[in-house]
# Entry
Amino acid sequence: MHNQENHAGVYSQSEYSPATALSTAANYIMNRQEPFIHTYRTYIRLRENGSLTLKFWHSNAVDSTWDLGLEASAGEPGGAWGIEAAYIADGGLEPDGTVTPGTQVAVTFSGETGKEVLPGEAFWTDEAVLDLPEGHYLAFTWTLRTASAGKTIPYNVEGMLVSAYDAPGNLAGQETSRSFSVSDKLLVLPGYIGYKKKVDKKLVFLGDSITQGVRTAKDEYSYWAARIAEGLGTGYGLWNIGSGWARAYDAATGGSWLNKAKQGDEVLIVLGVNDLDIGKRSAAELLEDIARIISLIREANPEVKIILGTVPPFNFAGEREDAWRSVNAAILAAPPAGVSRVFDIAAVLAMPAPADHRVRPEYMSNSDDPHPNGTAGKAVAEAFLKWY
# Structure
């Protein structure tokens, strides 16, 4: 474990593999006018059920920039906060806010039921063993407390891909749904959900909302990262760190998000849409950032295999379309040094040329939103698995 930041070894050097294809990357931070105590309960479909030894790792930092960075920016450390209590439980067949009576198992931190979290700290939990019947959800519940107003707890603010509930107060140990409300744009989970599992290869998918799966149906895991995980099978570990509104220049800073990416034997990078859009980067700047990401990952692990994805189409026009075409032409003809293979995800999602800067209408979340839907997720996963 890297002493300075406690990031390395999350995945690559541990006997744990990601238990879910759900991304829990943080792209926002709680910023309240007064201290609070609040409970968060999330339902997660795991890659395997049965008798599981689970372990969680968390990084108290924002992974990627939200909007223009006024609210949250990449690498920004979280504040000081505390974990009052945390539990895993059998969430049953329906994610309805309750847990199966008698199944809650306390998650501990160096033998303690709670923990004080320091700004920017990264830490592991102890092992926790749970028997989870086939088809049942894992319910993860924790009560978090802040001691002061202002910025404190990093989390993911995108549209919910899983069912979650939250409530004021310390209700982590409560089995019923009393006082809980459905969470909206509020995914509050540890950064890494692992289970004891030996795998043949450890993959990390580094991307933005398109990798995260934003706009696909809740609890369906129909986005392409989840479908690829399913297609590869549990002999492959897959850590999805896709983060809504993320850009390549977030990762190129070398902060907490890139440290996660460094953990794979193989890293798939699908970035660039937000760089060209809200980030207003030129083609040259984006390619430079991608090259830096690859260089930093290789520096950490010279044996790593890097798969670089083309930049997905996003219905750009004008100068942004020109930059998008320029970047993808460069990636396909002469990818940055250190790239092992190129996966042309753009070709899967795009209309036929010359309208290939546009997403196929049947793959769009809705008529105004070019985020890929579950149908697109299926198409990308099938193309990737065939190519891979």
